[in-house]
């Protein structure tokens, strides 16, 4: 599939509502997409597909996890191959300019580098089962002489690792950047403001219904500096944002529907400026058997009064 076809399929996937259609589109992407770093960046297909990682249908969630693992492994292999191919010209140039001893040393060094790159490319991608944590992953979060900061890094790591297969070094690097950004923002003070901010971020990141936030941070689409400036509403899952927006529009509609329509008449006289151009509306403010209350506003001076 080319970029245009992938974008079209992704668009249809975002609009799909029934499990059958979602599975069909996911299978098309799984079978036909040849993942490259450029394609994934241009189409954002990985971000969209990852939203279905926690889908209620186990077939959907299982397929998505398999796709993400495969694409991530393919992109990593692509990067390793680029690094490997980039070494050859350098080694060749060195061999043509250095003496025999240097050539031998360079060749040995290049051979070791190529062997390491080949080993990394061929190594199977690790798949994590069950809840992850810094302790289970064997990650050292004791980075500072302060227990509060170390505990913050560990908590951020645990939140970022929810339903993720990223390498521990990637997760701990992002967790450290977020903690550092908050620490600098609070002018190196570990007070309530520091703790409250980190609690908010940790709660948002550990939300299983918000995989796209973790995805954006771990793929560096969103950096730590911008992340800590976001409001809770901006961090909320896309589905929740849509629900909030829908509720907001409905509330506006309801409020407008409840607004009384004003009529302008010359039957009333303003007691203040004696003009007869008066707008009014009526409401039932007392019991049902009582007459309506009339609210008047003078269009000339703005004077208001009411009567029953």
Automatic annotation (TrEMBL):
<dbReference type="InterPro" id="IPR001222">
    <property type="entry name" value="Znf_TFIIS"/>
</dbReference>
<keyword id="KW-0238">DNA-binding</keyword>
<feature type="compositionally biased region" description="Low complexity">
    <location>
        <begin position="86"/>
        <end position="123"/>
    </location>
</feature>
<comment type="similarity">
    <text>Belongs to the TFS-II family.</text>
</comment>
<feature type="region of interest" description="Disordered">
    <location>
        <begin position="76"/>
        <end position="145"/>
    </location>
</feature>
<dbReference type="InterPro" id="IPR036575">
    <property type="entry name" value="TFIIS_cen_dom_sf"/>
</dbReference>
<dbReference type="InterPro" id="IPR017923">
    <property type="entry name" value="TFIIS_N"/>
</dbReference>
<dbReference type="InterPro" id="IPR003617">
    <property type="entry name" value="TFIIS/CRSP70_N_sub"/>
</dbReference>
<dbReference type="InterPro" id="IPR003618">
    <property type="entry name" value="TFIIS_cen_dom"/>
</dbReference>
<comment type="function">
    <text>Necessary for efficient RNA polymerase II transcription elongation past template-encoded arresting sites.</text>
</comment>
<keyword id="KW-0805">Transcription regulation</keyword>
<keyword id="KW-0479">Metal-binding</keyword>
<feature type="domain" description="TFIIS central">
    <location>
        <begin position="148"/>
        <end position="263"/>
    </location>
</feature>
<protein>
    <recommendedName>
        <fullName>Transcription elongation factor</fullName>
    </recommendedName>
</protein>
<dbReference type="InterPro" id="IPR035441">
    <property type="entry name" value="TFIIS/LEDGF_dom_sf"/>
</dbReference>
<dbReference type="Pfam" id="PF01096">
    <property type="entry name" value="Zn_ribbon_TFIIS"/>
</dbReference>
<dbReference type="InterPro" id="IPR006289">
    <property type="entry name" value="TFSII"/>
</dbReference>
<keyword id="KW-0804">Transcription</keyword>
<keyword id="KW-0863">Zinc-finger</keyword>
<feature type="domain" description="TFIIS-type">
    <location>
        <begin position="266"/>
        <end position="306"/>
    </location>
</feature>
<dbReference type="InterPro" id="IPR035100">
    <property type="entry name" value="TF_IIS-typ"/>
</dbReference>
<keyword id="KW-0862">Zinc</keyword>
<dbReference type="Pfam" id="PF08711">
    <property type="entry name" value="Med26"/>
</dbReference>
<feature type="domain" description="TFIIS N-terminal">
    <location>
        <begin position="1"/>
        <end position="78"/>
    </location>
</feature>
<dbReference type="Pfam" id="PF07500">
    <property type="entry name" value="TFIIS_M"/>
</dbReference>
<keyword id="KW-0539">Nucleus</keyword>
């Amino acid at each position: 599939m080319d970029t245009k076809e992938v974008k079209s399929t992704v668009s249809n996937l975002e609009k799909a509502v029934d499990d059958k259609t979602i599975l069909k589109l996911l299978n098309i992407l799984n079978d036909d997409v040849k993942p490259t770093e450029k394609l994934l960046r241009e189409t954002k297909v990985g971000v969209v597909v990852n939203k279905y990682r926690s889908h209620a249908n186990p077939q959907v969630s299982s397929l998505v996890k398999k796709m993400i693992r495969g694409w991530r492994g393919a992109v990593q292999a692509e990067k390793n191959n680029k690094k490997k191919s980039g070494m050859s010209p350098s080694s060749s140039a060195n061999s043509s300019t250095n003496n025999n001893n240097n050539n031998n040393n360079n060749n040995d060094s290049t051979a070791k580098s190529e062997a390491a790159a080949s080993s990394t490319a061929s190594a199977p991608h690790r798949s994590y089962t069950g809840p992850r944590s810094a302790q289970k992953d064997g990650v050292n979060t004791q980075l500072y002489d302060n227990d509060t900061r170390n505990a913050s890094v560990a908590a951020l790591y645990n939140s970022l690792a929810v339903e993720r297969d990223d390498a521990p070094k990637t997760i701990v690097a992002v967790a450290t950047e977020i903690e550092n950004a908050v620490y600098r923002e609070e002018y190196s003070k570990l007070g309530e403001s520091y703790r409250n901010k980190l609690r908010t971020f940790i709660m948002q990141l550990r939300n299983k219904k918000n995989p796209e936030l973790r995805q954006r941070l771990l793929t560096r689409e969103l950096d730590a500096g911008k992340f800590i400036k976001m409001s809770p509403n901006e961090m909320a899952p896309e589905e929740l944002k849509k629900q909030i927006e829908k509720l907001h529009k409905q509330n506006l509609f309801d409020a407008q529907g409840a607004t009384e329509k004003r009529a302008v008449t010359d039957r009333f006289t303003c007691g203040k400026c004696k003009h007869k151009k008066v707008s009014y509306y009526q409401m039932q403010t007392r019991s049902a058997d009582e007459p309506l209350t009339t609210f008047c506003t003078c269009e000339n001076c703005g004077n208001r009064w009411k009567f029953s």
